[in-house]
């Protein structure tokens, strides 16, 4: 088992890396659709750059897992950051040259970096057991608080840096953030048993692991939590601008949303230890449904911002809870394939949701986007609550036997 000192050190390193790596997506999400409207010949393709980012995350998860298994997490993360820096330069060039396809290529490549950043949460749990895993995952996600401020403020500070190429400065700053992550990631130290090239049995076959009901529920909960968040968040900036609000107001809305995504991480791990992972995940899904209800109440700026805040908190509870459930369902030697498969499903669905958001917003409006939240939440909420009740019964039975 990893020593506590090394675990704390790696958690701090990963939280710092998270603060830099997670600052890129708010830039892409806040401006991707707006730049898409500016460059795209077809209005229905405006959100394609944001959708391609999500597709890049999905496409990168399996290769990232294989690379990290072969060469170690630190080497993989350094490669991811290098890709992130290059992707920002490509997106910037796309804006400067008014080339929609090149801009889309840049956001797609940024997704590959995102696939590495998304696995920071799993890396924090390496070698830990029990409640320590949940707390480590939550601690790393705290880095997203800084990312919320950094990413959204960079949109505001740099969007007019090049008057002849609006928003090019923001995507150039995305490249700079990835470069800054490189020296941070160099400080990551792997436990001896996780050294690259070590011979491992590989554990059970993936198909056998996937027959576990709790893992199935965890994956579905993660898919629904993240896909709904991405679905609504992709459409929100365009909906706000379409309702007459400024780009700055839309960016601040995303900033509050991202702050809400990560601020609860200070206590999410403790809540899971006290109330159980299933219950915390269920509360997250209920908050996501509440965000849809608020959005349907009106089109004032307050409706957008409150809805996005609730959406962020709901994502935190739902996604971190589901992540912690996944880590309970595999052994250390099985983690690469299970975590990679989980993220492939999560971000593949996120990409599909993101692709559909722009088309639905253009064709049917902001209202339909939010109505679709409720049936998706209902699908997974009931099984989560039943699972929580079943685990409570099992724990009571174990306590009675012990007495």
Automatic annotation (TrEMBL):
The keyword Protein transport does not apply. Residues 214-403 form the Major facilitator superfamily (MFS) profile domain. It comes from the Bacteria. Keywords: Membrane, Transmembrane, Transmembrane helix. PROSITE patterns: MFS. GO terms for molecular function: transmembrane transporter activity. InterPro entries: MFS, MFS_dom, MFS_trans_sf. The chain crosses the membrane at residues 12-38, 50-68, 75-93, 99-116, 136-156, 168-186, 215-248, 254-273, 280-298, 304-324, 344-362, 368-386. PANTHER family: MAJOR FACILITATOR SUPERFAMILY PROTEIN (PTHR23534:SF1), MFS PERMEASE (PTHR23534). This is Putative MFS family arabinose efflux permease. It comes from Pseudochelatococcus contaminans.
């Amino acid at each position: 088992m990893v020593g506590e000192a090394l675990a704390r050190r790696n958690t701090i390193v990963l939280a710092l890396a998270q603060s830099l790596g997670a600052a890129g997506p708010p830039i892409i999400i806040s401006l991707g659709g707006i730049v898409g409207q500016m460059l795209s010949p077809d209005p229905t393709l405006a959100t394609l750059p944001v959708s391609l980012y999500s597709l890049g995350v999905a496409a990168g998860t399996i290769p990232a897992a294989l690379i990290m298994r072969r060469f170690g997490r630190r080497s993989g993360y350094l490669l991811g950051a290098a890709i992130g820096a290059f992707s920002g330069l490509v997106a910037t060039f796309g804006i400067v040259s008014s080339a929609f396809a090149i801009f889309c290529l840049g956001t797609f490549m940024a997704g590959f970096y995102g696939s590495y950043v998304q696995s920071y949460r799993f890396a924090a749990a390496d070698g830990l057991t029990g409640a320590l895993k949940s707390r480590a995952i939550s601690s790393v996600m705290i880095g997203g608080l800084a990312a919320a401020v950094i990413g959204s403020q960079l949109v505001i500070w740099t969007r007019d840096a090049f008057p002849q190429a609006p928003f090019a400065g923001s995507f150039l700053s995305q490249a700079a953030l990835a470069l800054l992550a490189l020296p941070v990631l160099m400080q990551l130290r792997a436990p001896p048993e996780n050294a690259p090239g070590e011979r491992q049995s590989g554990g059970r076959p993936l198909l056998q692991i996937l027959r576990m009901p709790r893992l199935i529920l965890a994956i579905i909960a993660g898919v629904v939590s993240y896909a709904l968040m991405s679905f609504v968040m992709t459409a929100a900036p365009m909906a706000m601008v379409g309702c007459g609000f400024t780009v700055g107001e839309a960016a601040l809305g995303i900033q509050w949303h991202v702050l809400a995504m990560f601020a609860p991480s200070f206590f999410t791990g403790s809540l899971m230890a006290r109330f159980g992972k299933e219950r915390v995940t269920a509360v997250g899904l209920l908050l996501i449904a509440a965000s849809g209800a608020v959005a349907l109440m009106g089109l004032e700026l307050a409706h957008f911002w409150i809805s996005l805040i609730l959406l962020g908190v709901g994502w935190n509870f739902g996604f971190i809870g589901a992540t912690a459930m996944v880590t309970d369902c595999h052994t250390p030697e099985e983690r690469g394939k299970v975590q990679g498969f989980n993220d492939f499903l999560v971000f593949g669905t996120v990409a599909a949701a993101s692709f559909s958001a722009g088309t639905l917003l253009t064709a049917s409006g902001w209202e339909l986007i939010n109505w679709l939240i409720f049936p998706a939440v209902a699908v997974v909420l009931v099984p989560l609550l039943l699972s929580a009740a079943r685990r409570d019964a099992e724990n009571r039975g174990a306590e009675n036997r012990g007495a």
